[in-house]
Amino acid sequence: MTYKKGNTAYLNNQVLTASPKRLIEMLFEAGIKHLKVASYHIDKNNLQESNAQLIKVQDIIMELKMSIHQIPGSDVSDQLNDLYDFMFNQLIQANLNKDKEKVELVQGMLEELLQTWQAL
């Protein structure tokens, strides 16, 4: 078994056995990781790789948005939905303009959401 196949099998096992709470944490963690990599590639002027990383984070944000549980009479789900829309739009702008500040803004927001989620 090659390293890549072993790593993929390990990751698949992690996802398949994770609790719903842990799955959300994993999405936050992956988004943060890809944003760090995107920032690095923006600094190195590697536009193709920064684009690929930012698109991965856009996909993660959409997955997080789809995971919102609507609670009747609660503004939390609407606020999270708006927050994810904002982050998604910031990532589009960051990708178009290779704007590292917008990447760092979204990264900070995901880090804060991760800390809040872990405290639950």
UniProtKB/TrEMBL annotation:
<keyword id="KW-1005">Bacterial flagellum biogenesis</keyword>
<keyword id="KW-0969">Cilium</keyword>
<comment type="similarity">
    <text>Belongs to the FliS family.</text>
</comment>
<dbReference type="GO" id="GO:0005829">
    <property type="term" value="C:cytosol"/>
</dbReference>
<keyword id="KW-0963">Cytoplasm</keyword>
<keyword id="KW-0143">Chaperone</keyword>
<dbReference type="InterPro" id="IPR036584">
    <property type="entry name" value="FliS_sf"/>
</dbReference>
<dbReference type="Pfam" id="PF02561">
    <property type="entry name" value="FliS"/>
</dbReference>
<dbReference type="GO" id="GO:0044780">
    <property type="term" value="P:bacterial-type flagellum assembly"/>
</dbReference>
<dbReference type="InterPro" id="IPR003713">
    <property type="entry name" value="FliS"/>
</dbReference>
<keyword id="KW-0282">Flagellum</keyword>
<protein>
    <submittedName>
        <fullName>Flagellar export chaperone FliS</fullName>
    </submittedName>
</protein>
<keyword id="KW-0966">Cell projection</keyword>
<dbReference type="GO" id="GO:0071973">
    <property type="term" value="P:bacterial-type flagellum-dependent cell motility"/>
</dbReference>
